[in-house]
């Protein structure tokens, strides 16, 4: 199996993981992965139910969204994925879902505040939400502009430390060094979105936790001197 066939297999399995984790229904959502050396992206085809998906139906596109293999159309969100790959050079996978709690925050056009250490274990602060898209951009190259909106938002955040975003009025995108990690971040985002909503339901005026506590939890897991987990021998 060559490298692109392996990439298609991994992207196929990553898409099925969205279903397994209850992050999508019917044809919602998509996962992609990139071969950086070849400049080729593998992504779910548009409108294909997950139960009909097979590795050979995964679409290969170049960084200009030209289909390189197969007769199916790539995901309608493929241009958004491509913008992220071009601007976030260390990512290897992107996931987009319509998971209900993350979508609720996106529809409210609100960032998810860091209200506890569970959140801080994964992100060193709030999970950002983009501004609303302009009428001009909605009428233009919508999916590309969605990606541009995410990139603009991350002028104020680290895409490596906060591998997730809410697109205002739309839904979540996540990414990682590989497709499997992008999906894992989608699972985490949905969990954080739910617990944040539950928390403010109990205590509507609760403030985010102290930055020192956020840093303690984030950097003990992700910093250069991290001590969470087991050492690799």
Could you characterize what this model shows?
The structure is a single chain. The chain is an alpha+beta fold and 233 residues long. The protein contains eight helices and seven strands, in the order αββββαβααααββαα.
Write the layout of secondary structure elements.
Layout: H1 3-20, E1 30-35, E2 40-43, E3 59-62, E4 67-69, H2 78-87, E5 93-96, H3 100-108, H4 117-120, H5 135-139, H6 142-153, E6 164-167, E7 171-176, H7 179-202, H8 211-222
Antiparallel strand pairs: 1-2, 1-5, 2-3, 3-4, 5-7, 6-7
Helix pairs in contact: 1-7, 2-6, 3-7
In short:
The radius of gyration is 18 Å and the shape is globular. The protein is α+β, with helices and mostly antiparallel strands and 233 residues long.
Biggest β-sheet description: 7 strands, antiparallel
Helix content: 40-55%
The tally of domains stands at 1
Question: What is the highest CATH level, the class?
Answer: Alpha Beta
Overall structural class, as computed from helix and strand content, comes to: alpha+beta
């Amino acid at each position: 199996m060559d490298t692109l066939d392996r990439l298609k297999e991994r992207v196929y399995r990553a898409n099925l993981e969205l279903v397994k984790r209850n992050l999508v229904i019917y044809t919602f959502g998509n996962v992609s992965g990139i071969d950086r050396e070849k400049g080729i992206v593998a992504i779910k085809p548009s409108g294909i139910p997950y139960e009909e998906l097979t590795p050979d139906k995964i679409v290969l596109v170049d960084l200009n969204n030209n289909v390189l293999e197969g007769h199916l159309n790539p995901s309608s969100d493929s241009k958004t994925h491509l913008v992220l790959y071009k601007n976030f050079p260390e990512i290897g996978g992107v996931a987009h879902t319509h998971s209900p709690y993350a979508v609720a925050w996106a529809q409210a056009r609100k960032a998810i505040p860091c209200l506890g250490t569970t959140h801080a274990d994964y992100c060193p602060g709030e999970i950002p939400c983009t501004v609303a898209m302009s009428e001009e951009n909605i009428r233009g190259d919508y999916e590309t502009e969605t990606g541009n909106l995410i990139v603009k938002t991350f002028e104020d955040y680290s895409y490596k430390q906060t591998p997730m975003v809410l697109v205002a009025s739309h839904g979540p995108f996540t990414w990682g060094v590989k497709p499997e990690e992008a999906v894992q971040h989608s699972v985490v985002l949905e969990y954080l979105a739910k617990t944040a909503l539950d928390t403010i339901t109990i205590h509507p005026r609760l403030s985010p936790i102290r930055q020192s506590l956020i840093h303690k939890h984030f950097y003990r897991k992700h910093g250069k001197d991290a001590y969470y987990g087991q050492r690799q021998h």
